[in-house]
């Protein structure tokens, strides 16, 4: 376990743990080819939980994404989410919504819940009907357990599960925040990410949860990119069931709100970075920090432009300190830039100073580029705002994976 202090707020990263009142499970039903993997799962709260979500802006929004958005917007409550991999149930016409509704109903009936308390999430191949015989089989097999199999049941081309659990003290009560997600390709979110789920036993004041999620998604999930493509199924959902019995947390400047916000941001930020690091075929995590920007929006824009540049990504894979790629990515944005005094560092080594080569040691720089995490710092020299984004390198293996995705 690790304890962290950020802005005088302490939180502890603990081994994966479900918060109070949550159960889950994951099973194999035949959606994926490998019987050693889980391909369907669910997550359940003992009591109805406050719920908030953010969803893809792709115009071909998938049926399960639409349904979950409608369900949460009904009363901002959820008690369960049922999910599957290997089939996105996206661009499947009217039948897609019929199947999503049936998937919701099957889970609700087994759990003894009203349909409008159950969310649905799907990921995988686009354009193929959801095999409802396997979905029914999966719901029949699912149980309410303490395992973490559901974190595997949503993976597609991911190399591993992505999870985090954090605990904080609120009013003398232990509050747990646990998150898990999937994503490694078709990653360029515009509100959320692939599939992300964060559950907590914290008690949150009415209306505050959606505000918290919407605010923090912009600085975390929306600041990652792997390949510049926005999925049809992206969503991040948060549930808060209140079983920690703390005083309700508002979205304000109170001590409790700051404690929760810091820990919540740590969960979202870590999950976002895990997705970027697990980009299809990737070998390196790339972090870009931008400082002295005119506005925060400019800083975020420049950071994401750099991690999203295929030329920058390819240079990092090739361990080539071609700083012209970085400068070009900055210049392509509409951000205010001092074109005569922009500076760039790579893993703390000066690369560009005042828009001129820093006359760096090529051998030293290439050795630094062999690291598994590459950190780029950009000074725009026009203000006091900062921003951050995460991505990965672009490799031969990315092409191989996506050239044979349906095979």
Characterise this structure.
The protein has 407 residues and is α+β, with helices and mostly antiparallel strands. The chain has two domains: 275 residues, L-amino peptidase D-ALA esterase/amidase (4-Layer Sandwich); 119 residues, Ubiquitin-like (UB roll). It is built from ten helices and 16 strands. The strands form two sheets. Strands 1, 2, 3, 4, 5, 6, 7, 8, 9 and 10 form a ten-stranded mixed beta sheet that branches. The radius of gyration is 22 Å and the shape is globular. The relative contact order is 0.14. Heterotetramer of two alpha and two beta chains.
- Please provide the ordered H/E string of secondary-structure elements: EEEEHEHEHEEEHEHEHHHEEEHEEH
Number of helices: 10
CATH homologous superfamily classification of the largest domain: L-amino peptidase D-ALA esterase/amidase
| CATH fold-level topology of the largest domain | L-amino peptidase D-ALA esterase/amidase
Shape label: globular
- Summarize model confidence as the mean pLDDT: 92
- Specify the CATH class of the largest domain: Alpha Beta
Question: Which percent band covers the strand fraction?
Answer: 25-35%
Say how many strands there are.
Answer: 16
Quick summary:
Helix content is 30%, strand content 28%.
Write out key terms for the chains shown.
10 helices, six-stranded mixed β-sheet, 407 residues, 2 domains, 30% helix, globular, Ubiquitin-like (UB roll), alpha+beta
Describe how the helices and strands are arranged.
Elements: E1 2-6, E2 9-14, E3 22-27, E4 40-55, H1 63-75, E5 77-84, H2 93-111, E6 118-122, H3 132-141, E7 162-170, E8 173-182, E9 195-200, H4 208-219, E10 235-240, H5 255-277, E11 285-293, H6 296-308, H7 310-317, H8 323-331, E12 343-346, E13 349-353, E14 356-357, H9 362-368, E15 373-379, E16 385-392, H10 396-403
Parallel strand pairs: 5-6, 9-10, 11-15
Antiparallel strand pairs: 1-2, 2-7, 3-4, 4-5, 4-10, 7-8, 8-9, 11-16, 12-13, 12-15, 13-14
Helix pairs in contact: 2-3, 4-5, 6-8
């Amino acid at each position: 376990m690790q304890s962290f202090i950020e802005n005088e707020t302490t939180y502890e990263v603990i081994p994966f743990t479900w918060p109070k009142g949550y159960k889950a499970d994951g099973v194999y039903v035949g959606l994926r080819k490998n019987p050693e993997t889980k391909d369907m799962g669910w997550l359940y709260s003992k009591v109805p939980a406050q719920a908030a979500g953010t969803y893809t802006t792709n115009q071909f929004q998938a049926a399960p994404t639409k349904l979950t958005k409608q369900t949460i917007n009904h009363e901002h409550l959820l008690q369960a989410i049922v999910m599957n991999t290997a089939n996105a149930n996206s661009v499947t016409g009217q039948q897609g919504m019929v199947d999503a509704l049936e998937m919701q109903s099957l889970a609700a009936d087994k759990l003894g819940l009203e349909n409008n308390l159950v969310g649905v999430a799907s990921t995988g191949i686009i354009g193929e009907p959801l095999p409802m015989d396997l979905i029914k089989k999966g719901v029949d097999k699912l149980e309410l357990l303490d395992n973490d199999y559901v974190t595997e049941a949503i993976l597609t081309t991911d190399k591993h599960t992505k999870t985090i659990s954090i605990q904080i003290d609120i009013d003398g009560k232990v509050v747990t925040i646990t998150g898990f997600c999937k994503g490694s390709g078709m990653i360029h979110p515009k509100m959320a990410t692939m599939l992300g789920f964060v559950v907590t036993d914290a008690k949150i004041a009415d209306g505050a949860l959606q505000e918290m999620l919407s605010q923090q998604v912009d600085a975390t999930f929306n600041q990652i990119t792997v390949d510049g493509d926005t999925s049809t199924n992206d969503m991040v959902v948060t549930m808060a069931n209140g079983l920690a019995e703390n005083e309700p947390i508002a979205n304000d400047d109170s001590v409790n709100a700051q404690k929760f916000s810091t820990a919540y941001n740590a969960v979202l930020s870590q999950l976002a970075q895990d997705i970027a690091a697990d980009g299809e075929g990737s070998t390196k995590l790339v972090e870009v920090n931008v400082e002295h920007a005119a506005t925060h929006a400019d800083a975020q824009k420049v950071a994401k432009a750099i991690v999203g540049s295929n030329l920058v990504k390819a240079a990092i894979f090739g361990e080539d300190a071609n700083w012209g790629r970085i400068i070009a990515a900055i210049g392509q944005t509409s951000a205010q830039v001092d074109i005569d005094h922009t500076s760039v560092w790579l893993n703390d080594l000066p690369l560009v100073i005042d828009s001129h080569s820093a006359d760096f040691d090529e051998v030293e720089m290439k050795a630094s580029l062999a690291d598994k995490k590459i950190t780029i710092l950009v000074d725009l020299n026009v203000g006091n705002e900062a921003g951050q984004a995460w991505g990965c390198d672009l490799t031969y293996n990315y092409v191989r994976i996506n050239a044979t995705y349906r095979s």
